[in-house]
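General statements about sequence and structure are easier to judge against a single worked case. Part of our work consisted of pairing the sequence of a single chain with a tokenised description of its backbone. The amino acid sequence and the backbone structure tokens for this protein are reproduced below.

***
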Amino acid sequence: MFSCLLISKTGAVADHELLKMFPRQAPRGGHEIHPDTLAPGQDILTSDGPNDYREVAGTSFAQPFISGVIALMLQVNPNLTTVEVKKILVETSVPLIGYTEKDQGSGQIQPLLAVALASYLNNKAKGMALAKRLGIKQQVFDIASKWKE
């Protein structure tokens, strides 16, 4: 069974810009919540009734995106711990220019890089083969060479 310690605070991003329409919340003791990382959260196509679709926006739609990336990571490396999953997502994210860490956490997640790194940590040869096919071999190697269990 997999624990739910993971990315608990996800910000929404669109076209490499934070979505300003989602204000910070202060649910406990007046402390602001800041995102751990960012995922797509605007112009998300969703069902709207039995035969219709509409575009929506918000962090509520960014979190399932992260969950899907985590599912793919666990498919290529079922041995990952919750701490390792979060570390991979954070270390493979790319900061947005012009925003602070307080606003964006580690930045926008990079799904292909996260899945390739998870694969590499499970089986170096298979992980590098995947990274090579995706055109991100050097990026995976650079992050993996700094990886500390």
User: Anything to note?
Assistant: Residues 136 and 142 are 10 Å apart (CA to CA).
